[in-house]
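Entry details:
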Amino acid sequence: MTQVRALLEGSQLNKLLVQVAGEKEATNLFTMIKVEDPLLAEQAGDIVSRMVLAQSMNMLLFVKNLEAVPDGKRYVEDRLAAGGQVVFDHGALRTVAAANTGELPQGEMAFKRFLEPLGFAVADVYPLGRLKMTGKAYCHKDAPELVTQFFVSELHVDQFSPAFQAAVNNVVSTSRDPLSPHAQALLKTLADKNQLAFSDAAKLLPELVGCFNVQHTTPALADYQALLLESAEMAWITTEGNAFNHATDRVPDVFATADELRAKGMPIKDKVEVSASGRVRQTAFKAVQVEREFIDENGRRVTRIVPGSFYEFITRDRYNDNAGNNKLDLRFDSSNAQGIFKMTDVSAC
């Protein structure tokens, strides 16, 4: 135990999180999230690798999701009280490919521009035809089984009605770019060298976390209502933006976890989604209900209760690939994803 503590405290990952979030929060993060030794092997120093910077971002994003999802926070607190930890499998976010997204790059490009310099690459593409979306799994090239993945979905606005497209543009055309010119320059350096100076990494990290927010101005209630008629996913983006739609805990047996949480009266999904291969199984809490602000037809600010984010559970089996290598099945499944996405549908909440 002493050796583990020494490895953690002497790691670059710990140093960066202490610098950005403070010592108390860094300790909380390592207590909560299981971090494998290879992610701690980089010793504290003046240079931060892309892998450590990516892991730091992911850990801060996980806590951000817990702050938004009380059911997820309660579950994690119960896990910690029982002596357990969370294996952060992936985070999911939604983007919009629209005619005008303001200062923000369209669709997945808003995230690809920094996920790739951080060492992530598209592992698979998942058509989400029922939702008129496409999902892409971004997996880390340096440690694919250890660094949290991203499931980035993109809404294809051109597949909807003209009225819907107009409402989308009203909402997202006001978007700001959360990455400063300096941050974008640092990302270019990171892409070229796969590392940054510690001081630069500490400056960049908060801006990366800030990308997972609402970037547009307060939407009109009429636009929200028009979008809700055709796409629960776009309505969700209207109020929640690019926040984590959900964070996901990798558990040994998702069926057992679901039964346990259901017995406790927690708002778990009725069905476990099973991939075509049978190796990936997922379920989730229902989305939290949140109060959000809109502008009504008279220009006044009004509030409504809408679906927010949620917390998901996944079980992944290992398998042998064609070369005989034993791997964790890191893939997703289009049917599973579309079933999980229903958690933020107004009718499901």
Q: What stands out?
A: The chain has a mean pLDDT of 94. Residues 261 and 268 are 7 Å apart (CA to CA). Residues 88-348 form a domain with the 2,3-Dihydroxybiphenyl 1,2-Dioxygenase; domain 1 fold (CATH 3.10.180.50). The first strand starts at residue 47 and ends at 49.
